[in-house]
């Protein structure tokens, strides 16, 4: 029985699927993949060159469609192919489609998987990331959404053949009016090696400009806490935390973030954490590997000067 990866083109292009393939290598059986949605054919060609992948299919549509449109066709495909596992990224597509598949197939699923211990044994976070939960799932197929940054990306291989698939797309009462990818000119928040997080301590546009200068010097992505999103200084898509993005950079620099529980849940997989805050007793200052206690207006210019190329 095969391990089947379901995905869309953005997840292939961002490198997320390379990590899903790396995760699938820990499971028995050949690895197959299906790309759904706009630009699926092009993305499938790239996916076909990842080590371990034995078969790639794609079902392309001209424009984005509601996830429910795929349901009948994908359920029929799973019933026909009978894979041992179905993997998706824990992104907006996976979080939307996988629970629907589980309900339609009357199966359990495990979400936000961080590690695969055996073919039926998985690790996921619980209680806002404060504990690690081990789960055994005996359903066939095992339905899993994975946090991709917890897995090493697959290497390259000679590309396998790609096959165009024809899946039934069910008409729905809803439709996607527009699809506008976020283009910031910076590394993707979920894939970046270095991330700078800004919080309540950033109160003005001028202070946020200092954060941007430091990010430019470090070639870093910028994210932040809910307070900066509410203040209009940061896009919703860049919120870090339990209700936002889960990140796992090698280096996370938190500027003016106290460390609410929901924010800490989004950075637990970060490598090295540096916190800058005027409050030495802030939770994130206690959690960080390195803490700089002081006024960010004094500290940031020094960091910018030290990192100028």
UniProtKB/TrEMBL annotation:
UniProt GO BP: fatty acid beta-oxidation using acyl-CoA dehydrogenase
Cofactor(s) it depends on: FAD
Cofactor annotation remark: Binds 1 FAD per dimer.
Molecular function, one GO term: flavin adenine dinucleotide binding
A Pfam cross-reference name: ETF_alpha
Limits of the Electron transfer flavoprotein alpha/beta-subunit N-terminal domain: 1-178
Keyword Transmembrane helix applies: no
Claim: Transmembrane is one of the keywords in the record: no
Key words of the record: Electron transport, FAD, Flavoprotein, Transport
Highest taxon, organism lineage: Bacteria
Binding positions (FAD): 200, 225-226, 239-243, 256-263, 277
UniProt cross-references to PANTHER family, sorted A to Z: ELECTRON TRANSFER FLAVOPROTEIN ALPHA (PTHR43153), ELECTRON TRANSFER FLAVOPROTEIN SUBUNIT ALPHA, MITOCHONDRIAL (PTHR43153:SF1)
Family: Belongs to the ETF alpha-subunit/FixB family.
Designated name of the protein: Electron transfer flavoprotein alpha subunit apoprotein
Organism annotation: Ferrimonas marina
């Amino acid at each position: 029985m095969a391990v089947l990866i379901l995905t869309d083109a953005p997840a292939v292009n961002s490198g997320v699927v390379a990590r899903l393939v790396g995760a699938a290598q820990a499971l028995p059986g050949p690895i197959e993949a299906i790309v759904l949605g706009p630009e699926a054919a092009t993305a499938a060609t790239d996916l076909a060159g990842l080590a371990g992948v034995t078969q790639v299919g794609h079902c392309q549509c001209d424009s984005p469609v509601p996830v429910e449109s795929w349901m009948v066709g994908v359920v029929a495909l799973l019933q026909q192919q009978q894979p041992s596992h179905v993997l998706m990224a824990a992104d907006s597509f996976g979080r939307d489609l996988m629970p629907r598949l589980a309900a339609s197939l009357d199966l359990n699923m495990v979400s936000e998987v961080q590690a695969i211990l055996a073919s039926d044994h998985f690790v996921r976070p619980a209680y806002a990331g404060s504990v690690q939960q081990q789960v055994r799932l005996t359903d066939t197929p095992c339905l899993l959404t994975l946090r991709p940054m917890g897995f090493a990306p697959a290497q390259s291989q000679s590309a396998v053949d790609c096959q165009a698939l024809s899946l039934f797309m069910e008409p729905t009462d809803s439709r996607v009016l527009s699809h506008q990818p976020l283009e910031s000119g910076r590394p993707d928040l979920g894939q970046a090696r270095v991330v700078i997080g800004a919080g309540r301590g950033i109160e003005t546009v001028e202070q946020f400009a200092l954060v941007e200068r430091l990010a430019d010097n470090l070639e870093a992505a910028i994210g932040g806490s809910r307070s900066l999103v509410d203040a209009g200084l940061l896009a919703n898509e860049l919120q870090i935390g339990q209700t936002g993005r889960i990140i796992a950079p090698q280096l996370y620099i938190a500027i003016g973030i106290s460390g609410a529980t929901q924010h800490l849940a989004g950075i637990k997989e970060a490598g090295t954490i540096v916190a800058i805050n005027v409050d030495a007793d802030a939770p994130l200052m206690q959690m960080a590997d390195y803490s700089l206690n002081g006024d960010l207006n004094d500290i940031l210019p020094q960091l910018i000067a030290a990192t100028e190329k």
